[in-house]
Amino acid sequence: MAKLNDRENAFENKFAHDEKLNFKIDARCAKLFGLWAAEKQGLSADAALSYAGDIISANIEKPGFQHIMPKIKADLAAKGVEITDHGLQSELERIREDAKDQILDESGV
Length: 109
Description:
The chain is mainly alpha-helical. The chain has 4 helices and no strands.
């Protein structure tokens, strides 16, 4: 019975660890995505950090990027930067991979 409890605890610990990593990856992705969009809009460094913070907050309040994409697309369009939904999704996927690599490197995983 002890082995079964040990195995159950190991699964629970792995799940908690994976959830924590995924949260960090999502937060980093939101930050990098916000900074990318800010750069495309030509925002100053301070404005870019503020914009990225807004993207992070929006993603924490309502997880998932599907509700953030229209805002970013509209913000880019307002600054004269045209991008397709596919282009925006491709950029998000590239940034997510970068965020994942950064977090895993920092975590030593």
